Amino acid sequence: MTVMTKMKGFATAAGFAATLMVGGASIASAEDVVLTMAVPDWPPTRIMKKFFDEQYKPASGNKVTLDVDFIPWPDFYTRVNASLTSGEKKYNFIVSDSQWLGAFVEGGYFRKINDLLEADPAFMETFKSIHPNPLNAYSTYPHKSENYYGFPQFPDVLVNFARKDIICHDEEQKNFQAKYNKKLPCTGEELDAMTWDDFKNVGEFFQRKKGDMLAGAPAEDDFYGIAYQAGKGYDFSSMQINGFIWQMGGNTWDETQIPNGQAEGVVNSPEAVAALEKYLSLIQYMPPVAKTGTMDIFKSDELFREGKVAMNINWIGLGEASLDPNSSKVSDKLVFGQMPGTMGADGKMIRWSNIGGQPFVLTTWTTDAQIKEAVEFVKWWLSSEIQHQFAAGGGQSAVKSVYEDPKYVTYRPWNRAWAPQLDWQKDVWHVPQFFELLTQQQDQFDLAITGKQDAKTTLDNVAKFQQNLLTEAGLIQ
Amino acid sequence: MSSTTATAAPPALMTLAPDNWKLAILVGLAVSVIAAITFPASVSFWIVGAMAALVAAAFVVNAFRRKYYGGLLVAPAIAVLFVMNIFPLLWSLGLSFFAYQSNNQSIRFVGLNNYIKALTNDLAAEANWNALVNTAMFVVFTVAAQMVVGFLLALLFAKQFPLRKYLLILVLTPMMLSVVASGVFFTYYYDPTFGILSYIMGNITGEQFILMDNKLGAVAGIVFADAWMWSPFVMLLVLAGLVSVPKYLYEAAAIDRVSGWRQFWTITFPYIRGLLMLALLFRTIEAFKLADLVILLTKGGNDTMTISYHLIRIANEQNKTSEGAAISYLMLFMVIVLTNLYLYLANRRSHGA
Questions:
Q1: Residues A120 and A83 in one domain
Q2: Distance from A183 to chain B by nearest Cα, in Å?
Q3: Would you tell me which of A306, B19, B99, B249 could form a disulfide with B62, CB atoms 3.0–4.6 Å apart?
Q4: What is the pLDDT of residues A119-135, one digit of tens each?
Q5: What ipTM was reported for this prediction?
Q6: For B210-219, how does the pLDDT look when each residue is reduced to its tens digit (9 = 90+)?
Q7: Counted domains in chain B
Q8: Chain B residue with minimal CA distance to A442?
């Protein structure tokens, strides 16, 4: 045997071995590529899977399968976290909440994608056409740096879900005008122009007992004007409170200012305390479950769909169910607007809000063959045509050319609030300490929401904890 | 086989034989130490594991050759116990002396720091202590409620009455439901907008009723749900005791015109005391681990955080593995002390009787 044939033999064997290893998840011939994906179980991911199965034709001619694990939302973090930290290396793609980036990048699980973008100018161009706010939130670590990790799967913002039949009723309009000397918002544009004070008025105005007159008929049950998230679980109060704090001139701990940005004095600044007080002062007008600390985004959505509230601030991602007559008693009575804002000193509306939605990321153990197909898939996913289809099917797109298309607002009634809101989205805490920061803050906010302590004490406790933890971690010096 | 009666002599220390367990231990220890020093942890872990298996195999061959069949018969059980219980227990004990987070590859020896933090840090220790006090409170209330309700139910079902069989099945159903199902059921039951409890209370008092907006209500809600699920368990055990009391004792007592109260204390109670104690022990241990209902009903809000849920958050959600391990060991220590104290008291009372 010559050296050459030996080498050849070795190469064949190595190739064979590599095929076997690559094929760990895939089976049979070398052209089969399986991309395993962990996603939360809800319409935006179901639609993606459906589109993939029906339409996706890989350019390489390989047989690409998207093997999707649909995990219910309440378990999603626990399952993904367990899968990653146990080292089972099961998933190639993971839909990740934006704030998980730090923890899982530092842990060595999420793959940096700068090399993939640089290798493919067209891909880079599509990528850069994503609105900078979602791009920063979903993809960069450290936050707002040039290190990229994720692609938008389902971008999301908070919008105002409202009941036309209630708020546009003549009688109610007249009474509201008489009481507040202001027009009760009825159209989308009027909803957009609402401040939190207007929102409070709506809450106060529409508090009705069972049997009281409501939009020309006796109310079948107790009725409430407003609702937003105020729950202890996951991030179901922070995401709303952050918007209040930013709008009213306060700030959260700013990760772009590491290591000089402080928590104490910033997180509990007088502006932030006033903002939290404002948030808390509206809870009395909401369905009573808010007082128990369990009104999360799912509960307020359910109350809205059951017709118990006039206005609800919630994520677009939960919107599909409210339009579906099978799951909503108010499906044909809806109008949508931007989340209320705060009037600035210059008479311009300040609309800061915490971004929602999720990127999907590649994991570090994904093989070259899989990465090649994954990139092709992501390019296809972010292509104008598919993004349009996705938006028309109930998704959202952060790709500029797509959401700026005049057709875009016709897809769903809330889409009119989408583009203007994108400019006002911020995000928090892509740092590895995210989960500790979040659980402590949620516990403290819960104490405030359920009336156990005031806003000042709450934010003092949060600031003290954050200062302590982040100093220990070396992020504050 | 000629050697069925005589067992072979144990091999000398340095003989290479499959039953030479002393040599296996020596080799295993030496290889493990070398592997731990020279290889990275991910490799040496498996080498040490293989050495442990080698020693175990030597023990088995030795037992077979020396005809320790009793030992051989329990060996599989011991192996499973070791792999599934003892090894993870020791492993987490080791982890509790390191600074280790499961989502982070770095690991650093910190001695007793995790324990010191759990016991003295002004933020962490307070949260731990608070969760522990809440847990103790839940143990007292839920177990007391279950024992009383379960006991009374058992007294009821020990008698014969129409439809008893069907009612018994109904009463046992909560125990068979999954905790999640009953947790979700109770969230709706207590819900101020959709729930029947608030509806009925609202109609009686004319005011809005919100059960879960204060600590008393939240605790009552959790205790009620837990008692609803687990009273049937206590009932089953007590019922088994009640039906085992020989009828002639009651007949003799009736002839002697002994009062019902005295019958209960001198005949019935001695028969069911053992089972009552068993039910108490089981339910106390279970109540100490209460987390599922709390997660479903309050998420730990209204000061209902229990130590188990607190641990889940630290070890699983925040990935602070070693800190969680330290707290678990403190908990384990407490449970062992309490259980022994309890068993001691129970035994003393039964001897005294």
A1: yes
A2: 29
A3: B19
A4: 999 899 989 999 999 99
A5: 0.80
A6: 888 889 999 9
A7: 2
A8: B301
